[in-house]
Amino acid sequence: MYRVFQALDELNAMIEDARSLPMTANCVVPRHESLLLLDDIRDSFPGELDDAQDVLDQRDRVLADADAAARDTLSSADAEAERTLREAREDADAMLADAKARADRMVAEATTHADGVVADARAEASDLLERSRRDAESTTARARAEADRLTEQANIIYDRTITEARQEQQRMLSESEVVRIADEEAARVRDAAHSESDRRREECDAYIDEKMAHFEEFLSATIRTVTRGREELHGVGPGGRREASGRRLGHDEDSYSDGYRDY
Question: What is the pLDDT confidence band of residue 7, given thresholds at 50, 70 and 90?
């Protein structure tokens, strides 16, 4: 391939250095030398280029054969698809017709059965309505008789209750002084109960305040212990850190015994 590029360079230089024809863009090139360079270029091309051209030609033939086979396959597939679709449509139409016939038969049977059920229901409803009417009349008659009896009994009870109420009123009027004394005693007991409740509430508040103060002291001591422990942890080496931990343990035990144990 090196000779090909070299011959092309020589041919290019020959054309550039050739004598130009006046008034035209043409030039005079030595024919013999030009043909020799062209023959040299043709002979210098490797044989693989010709083989590559054969491969390209073979590829075109293979692609053409594949395209033809694909078209044949596609045509066969289309025909098979149309046949399958036609058969499926025929089967679907047959199934639809059969289903419609069965549905019509079932609807007719259901309609007949429904008509019978409706007729039976109407007959039973008429019978129930008649029995209900008779029962209602009988119940109404018994209810009226019972209402009359209850009204008469209520009048008797009312009269007796009025008499007893008047007697009780007379008795209560005679006992009004006893009622007044009882009201005064109840007021005294109520006031005493309020006083006792206030006293117990104050004692409870004082007790809770005392316990919260102890708990506050315990928390303050714990916070101081934790703060001192952190300061010792950051300011002392490994040996001193263990010693600081020992001192924190002792202080925590004191704080626990002073404050938290009470809770």
Answer: confident
**Residue 173's pLDDT is what?**
65
Examine the pLDDT at 65 and tell me if it is beyond 60: yes
> Contact at 8 Å (CB) between 31 and 11?
no
Hey, what are 132's tokens?
A: 């209900």
Res. 255: pLDDT tops 50: no
Mean per-residue pLDDT, 90-117? 88
Taking a C-beta distance cutoff of 8 angstroms, is the pair 230, 238 a contact?
no
Give this prediction's pTM.
Answer: 0.26
Q: Alpha carbon of 211 to those of 161, 201, 225, 254: distances in Å?
A: 63, 15, 21, 18
- E strand or H helix that includes residue 28: strand 27-28
Q: Where are the domains of the chain?
A: 2-79, 208-262
Residue written as token pair 């004191």: 254
CA distance 5 to 48: 17
Give the per-residue pLDDT at 179. 67
- Identify whether the C-beta of residue 44 lies closer than 8 Å to the C-beta of residue 8: no
Please report how many Cα atoms fall inside a 13 Å half-sphere around the Cα of residue 49, on the Cβ side.
6
Q: What is the pLDDT of residue 240?
A: 46
Question: For residue 139, which amino acid is it?
Answer: T
Q: How far apart are CA 131 and CA 120, in angstroms?
A: 17
What is the separation, in whole angstroms, between the first and last Cα of the chain? 104
Note every long-range contact of 251-255, with CB atoms under 8 Å and residues 24 or more positions apart, other chains counting: 251/221, 251/225, 252/222, 252/225, 254/221, 255/218, 255/221, 255/222, 255/225
With both helix axes pointing from N to C terminus, report the angle between 176-235 and 47-174 in degrees, rounded to the nearest 10: 150
